[in-house]
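*** Fold description ***
***
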Amino acid sequence: MKPPEKAVLHPLSTASHYLQLGMLILMSRRADVGARTTVTAACAGREADGEFMMDGKVRKVVGWVETEEGKRVQERVFEEILGAIGVTEVADLM
């Protein structure tokens, strides 16, 4: 993947582009692994409701996620997702 031909390039933009591409390749998961993760989360049961899961296990969240700012970000992202899928009230999901 390369930048558009007519783009005005900053000297670091090409290096930044390839750095981002490299990180995407290193941190991505294959589709079958992502599907397995989704199915595992859906079948995990009540103990996993609202919890963070990684590699099929409920994990403790650390860092800024538990701060007031983290909680505000979680709420904002949740509202944006609901808006994107056309849900206006959480009760509509039930």
Q: What stands out?
A: The chain has a mean pLDDT of 81. The beta strands are 52-54, 57-59.
